[in-house]
């Protein structure tokens, strides 16, 4: 029987290999889309082989789904860090909105992956039990905040968490996904650092103004 330390080291090696594959695959799928991405290219840019990628994930489609699962799970995990139970409802909403703003800006590959999966009508996302279970984490914090805001008489009675999620998501995704066409037409870079805080504050204002209208 192998020593416990050897078993632990092998497990760490597996985790590192899997993480390395996912990191490279994320960039490959984000850059080239599901159809254009090649497992051979992913293997060439990692410390593993095509055979090992199939061993860990089963195939190209399963690898792509794993990339989506990791990407969506990351933002859901961040949302859970906001203290929705104790912050003032307005402050909690601004934190949730700002968190999404920061995450999307720091992870442009996530925006590309979402766009690519929409091109495929979410057919891969629909196959994942993990992704199917992320609706509650996405809306759970918003639901708590809206309930508290309504109970305090601060928010409109018909406030719906999915509507608020849509407002936040659409603003943040548009800013990244349409950056280049927007700049080409209007001459303004939506990722200009000089306007970053302006846009971040604008997002919070949009959410609060809607809920208090």
TrEMBL record:
Pfam family, one: TetR_N
Record key words, sorted: DNA-binding
Biological processes annotated in GO: regulation of DNA-templated transcription
Domain of life: Bacteria
GO molecular function: DNA binding
Record-annotated DNA-binding residue ranges: 38-57
Domain HTH tetR-type: start-end pairs: 15-75
UniProt xrefs under InterPro entries: Homeodomain-like_sf, HTH-type_TetR-like_transc_reg, HTH_TetR, NicS_C, Tet_transcr_reg_TetR-rel_C_sf
Name of the protein: TetR/AcrR family transcriptional regulator
SUPFAM superfamilies: Homeodomain-like, Tetracyclin repressor-like, C-terminal domain
């Amino acid at each position: 029987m192998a020593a416990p330390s050897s078993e632990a080291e092998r497990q760490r090696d597996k985790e590192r290999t899997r993480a390395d594959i996912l990191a490279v695959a994320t960039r490959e799928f984000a850059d080239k889309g599901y159809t254009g991405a090649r497992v051979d290219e992913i293997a060439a840019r990692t410390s593993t082989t095509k055979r090992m990628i199939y061993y860990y994930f089963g195939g190209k489609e399963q690898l792509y789904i794993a990339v989506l699962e990791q990407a969506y799970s990351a933002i859901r995990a961040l949302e859970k860090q906001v203290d929705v139970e104790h912050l003032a409802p307005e402050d909690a909403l601004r934190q949730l909105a700002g968190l999404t703003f920061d995450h999307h800006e720091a992870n442009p590959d996530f925006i590309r992956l979402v766009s690519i999966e929409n091109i495929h009508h979410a057919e891969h996302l629909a196959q994942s039990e993990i992704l199917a279970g992320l609706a509650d984490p996405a809306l759970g914090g918003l639901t708590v905040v809206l309930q508290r805001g309504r109970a305090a008489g601060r928010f409109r009675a018909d406030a719906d968490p999915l509507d608020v999620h849509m407002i936040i998501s659409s603003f943040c995704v548009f800013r990244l996904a349409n950056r280049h066409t927007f700049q080409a037409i209007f001459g303004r870079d939506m990722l200009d650092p000089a306007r970053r805080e302006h846009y971040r504050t604008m997002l919070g204002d949009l959410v609060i103004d809607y809920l208090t209208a």
